[in-house]
Write a structure and sequence with these properties.
Chain B: This is Exporter of polyketide antibiotics. The complex is a heterodimer of chains A (308) and B (541). By secondary structure, chain A is α/β, with parallel strands linked by helices. Chain A contains eleven helices and 13 strands. In chain A, helix 3 (94-105) packs parallel to helix 5. With 541 residues, chain B is mainly alpha-helical. Chain B is built from 24 helices and two strands. Chain B folds into two domains: 7-266, no CATH class; 303-536, no CATH class. At the A-B interface, helix 2 and helix 3 of A face helix 13 and helix 17 of B.
């Protein structure tokens, strides 16, 4: 399978700020790829480089087999972009803006346009100046999804949408994905990425820190366990791979590294366990591992404090 | 809680937000008036000269329409004739914009919602806005009185002048307050108020143009339409003429009526809603819109039409003056010489030199238009929709070219219409310069205006974050060196910097193709370089 997007060692500086610092990203054709990172991590900068709106200082970027800086307009016929902050012309109506973006991209499927207007409940006769942020977002989404393209580049596309519209968005992404299109989805909303994406790349300070399927990333991280037993649980703090332990008699809550899980379960078996819940980490927790204020040592200190 | 609770705090908030805008507007107006008064004192030291000038102006309906009616031959009366109409418009626009800014704009942006949720009465926002604007008009009036008095003009007339402007501004504040209740967007409310100013100007212009000329020719009595225009009332008080202070009660009555109406309307609507709903627009785009050029035209359409109408009006005014210029200024050696310098001709016929000088002014206006259109490139790029447009299959050069086409095409249309209007008006008053000659003279300015446009594209490509200031600076330098270089006595090398220096002064001299071709080449090179630079740089959002 070819890659829809492949980026290697991308560097982009603005004056003294290094927005991208050797970023890598591979999006295979046909996948829905989540692109996660906190504000200022370089997500939007990366997308703008991929669209030929910014020129990288060094590194290699390829989009749909072409150079995004050189083959800009040719590539743009085959992709659709939804910016993070959609700005429209105040005196055009939403319907006019949808048609305009679609046509400038090379054409719009009218039946699909009507269907999406209905689904996203957008009144196309209103002037853009009267639209809320969510409605402006809808204009860009409808214009993108009504275009027949191979690649969708979406920069935090659901900011400002209510939960109902978010569901409509997820349905639409599944439709275009089922039709074979590739989607690169930059997002803050973990549940959305968990629901939609087969692969995830996490970036921080302009570098990719994790990349893989959700399953692969979970493998790297811990499971949260809450256990209740008939006898007081002891000895957990001595086991390797156990973190953030809160023990209170027969009740204990802790995180455990995936590799240490078998040993922990063997240890617990001797305490007549009554209930045991475990859950995989949410993306939020994955995120916290990389960007949280509490790295290893601080987490250890907290658990020590709690145990006192 | 009283309906007015919190008004004091909102007044302070409004003053804080306007702490630059209003002082600059007021001080700027006072400086313009002081300069205008000084110019009159300098140009027309004796009553006979003033009488001649006024007698000439009084015969031209176009001048009466633009300026108002002359009220006498005193120095102050001539200052009134040359400046009062403009000052009244400045007071009116200051007031309408400020009222809308502190009422409807707050509602549209949602700020009013947060304010209304606090301990603030229902009537506080409008009361605070009107308080601030009425206060601003009082300061405006005092500043104008100061400007006139400091120029050495009698205080009595200065007070009438200042009070006329202040109460006119207040009347338009009332009109804007009503508009802010009617319309849902600040833009529509501003358009309503600005249209009111425009209509009021036109109605009083018609009344003045139809006015009755006194036997001595230095006074004109306005016809009845001037009496139904709020802008007319300020003039009918006749500062420095046979003053009629009682007329100034009329704007105050209008203010009271409007404020009463605005509160009544405001009580009948919800926060954020307008009494006139926004009209729905087309649900789909027409074919016309669906290209970069179609989009650029759509974005510039309204303002282009405004500039075209203005050019025709200006052209008609200039054309109707040809005859007057000959009669009134024929004997004035200094003015003839000045005209020759402005036109860049030594000694052609006075009327031809006058028209050539005016064509230069049209060229300058066309260049202003082109700069304004092209600066849209930057506003679309900086936090505007350009990012999304350039992420479609539209190439950067094509996007810039579409806006450039609107700038140059609009400038060409302006110059053709201005030339034709000048020629037609000239023919109507018995002139013999010829419509086609003047259309050609207008078009001869196009390469110079286009060169300015090319410069803006170059700066946009190379230094996008500085394009606004550099574009206007470039325009000012070209106008100063080109149009006024001779008057200022600048050396030729400096004057050659401006494209306007190289435009042949048609109809005073014959057309020569050389400089025109040269300018076209320079303009094309500047624009092409700008596009290449833009193609090579990052989008600067």
């Amino acid at each position: 399978m070819t890659d829809a997007i492949s980026v290697e060692g991308l560097v982009k500086t603005f004056g003294r700020t290094r927005a991208l610092n050797g970023l890598d990203l591979v999006v295979q054709t046909g996948e829905v790829h989540g692109f996660l990172g906190p504000n200022g991590a370089g997500k939007t900068t990366t997308l703008r480089v991929l669209l030929g709106l910014l020129r990288a200082d060094s590194g290699r970027a390829q989009v749909l087999g072409g150079d995004p800086w050189q083959d800009t307009t040719r590539l743009h016929r085959r992709l659709a972009y939804v910016p993070g902050d959609v700005n429209l012309w105040p005196n055009l109506t939403g319907g006019e803006a949808v048609d305009l973006f679609g046509d400038l991209r090379g054409g719009l499927d009218q039946a699909r346009r009507a269907e999406l207007l209905e689904r996203f409940r957008l009144d196309p006769t209103k002037r853009c100046r009267t639209y809320s942020k969510g409605n402006r977002q809808k204009v860009a989404l409808i214009a993108a999804f009504a275009s027949d393209v191979e690649l969708f580049v979406l920069d935090e596309p659901t900011s400002g949408l209510d939960p109902l519209m978010e569901a409509a968005f997820q349905q639409t992404v599944r439709e275009v994905s089922a039709a074979g299109a590739t989607v690169l989805l930059s997002s803050h909303i973990f549940s959305e990425v968990e629901a939609l994406c087969s692969k995830v790349s996490i970036i921080r300070d302009g570098v990719t820190v994790e990349s893989g399927t959700l399953a692969q990333l979970r493998h790297l991280t811990r499971t949260s366990v809450v256990v209740e037993a008939a006898q007081p649980i002891t000895g957990l703090d001595a086991l390797p791979g156990v973190h953030d332990l809160v023990a209170d008699g027969g009740r204990a809550g802790f995180d455990v590294d995936a590799a240490a899980l078998p040993g922990v379960l063997r240890h617990l078996a001797s305490f007549e366990v009554q209930t045991l819940t475990s859950r995989p980490p949410t993306l939020e927790e994955l995120f916290m591992r990389h960007y949280g204020d509490a790295p290893e040592s601080a987490a250890e200190a907290t658990s020590a404090g709690a145990a006192r | 809680m009283s309906a007015y609770a919190g008004t004091g705090r909102l007044v302070r908030l409004a003053l804080r937000r306007d702490r630059v805008q209003l002082p600059v507007w007021i001080a700027g107006s006072a400086v313009i008036l002081a300069a205008g008064a000084a110019a009159v004192i300098d140009e027309f030291p004796d009553a006979a000269g003033r009488a001649t000038a006024l007698q000439g102006a009084g015969t031209s309906p176009a001048v009466l329409l633009m300026r108002g009616t002359p009220v006498g031959t005193d120095l102050g009366a001539l200052v009134n004739f040359r400046n009062l109409a403009f000052m009244l418009v400045l007071a009116a626009l200051m007031s309408t914009f400020a009222v809308v800014r502190h009422t409807r704009q707050n509602e549209e942006t949602g700020r009013a919602e947060m304010i209304g949720a606090a301990s603030v009465g229902r009537r506080a926002a409008l009361t605070a806005a009107l308080t601030v604007v009425i206060g601003a008009n009082l300061v405006f009036g005092v500043a104008l009185i100061g400007a006139l008095a400091s120029a050495g003009l009698p205080a009595g007339g200065a007070v009438t002048f200042g009070v006329a402007c202040a109460v006119t501004g207040m009347a338009f504040a009332g009109i804007a307050a009503v508009g802010a209740q009617l319309f849902q967007s600040a833009r529509s409310a501003n358009a309503f108020a600005a249209t009111a100013v425009g209509v009021a100007y036109l109605v009083r212009g018609i009344g003045d143009a139809l006015g009755e000329r006194a036997a001595d020719g230095v006074q004109v009595t306005s016809a009845w339409p001037s009496w139904v225009s709020p802008l007319g009332w300020g003039m009918l008080a006749r500062p420095y003429g046979a003053e009629r202070l009682w007329v100034l009660v009329l704007p105050i009555l209008l203010l009271v009526a409007c404020v009463w109406g605005a509160f009544a309307l405001g009580g009948r609507r919800d926060l954020g809603a307008g009494l006139i709903p926004e009209r729905p627009g087309p649900a789909a785009a027409s074919r016309m819109l669906l290209s970069p050029l179609g989009l650029a035209w759509r974005l510039n359409r309204a303002s282009t039409i405004g500039w075209l109408v203005g050019s025709v009006a200006f052209g008609l005014g200039v054309g109707s003056l040809g005859d007057v210029v000959n009669d009134a200024l024929g004997g004035n050696e200094g003015v003839s010489k000045l005209m020759g310098q402005l036109a860049g001709t030594g000694s052609a016929g006075l009327v031809e030199a006058f028209f050539a000088a005016m064509m230069n002014v049209f060229g300058a206006v066309a260049a202003c238009f082109a700069v304004q259109v092209l600066l849209r490139l930057r506003s679309e790029e900086a936090g505007g929709p350009a990012e999304a447009v350039l992420a479609t299959a539209v190439g950067r050069a094509r996007w810039v070219a579409a806006h450039l086409a609107c700038a140059v095409g609009g400038a060409a249309a302006m110059l053709v219409l201005a030339g034709a209007a000048t020629g037609l008006a000239d023919a109507a008053v018995g002139g013999e310069v010829g419509v086609l000659t003047l259309v050609g003279a207008g078009l001869a300015q196009l390469p110079a205006a286009t060169t300015v446009a090319g410069f803006v594209v170059l700066v946009f490509g190379g230094l996008p974050r500085m394009v606004v200031s550099l574009a206007w600076a470039g325009l000012v330098v070209s106008l100063a060196c080109g149009l006024l270089g001779d008057v200022f006595g600048l050396p030729q090398a400096v004057r050659d910097v401006s494209p306007f220096t190289h435009v042949p002064a048609i109809p005073a001299v014959d057309a020569t193709p050389g400089p025109i071709i040269g300018l076209v080449v320079v303009a094309a090179a500047l624009a092409a370089a700008g596009m290449v630079l833009f193609r090579r740089r990052d989008l600067a959002t």
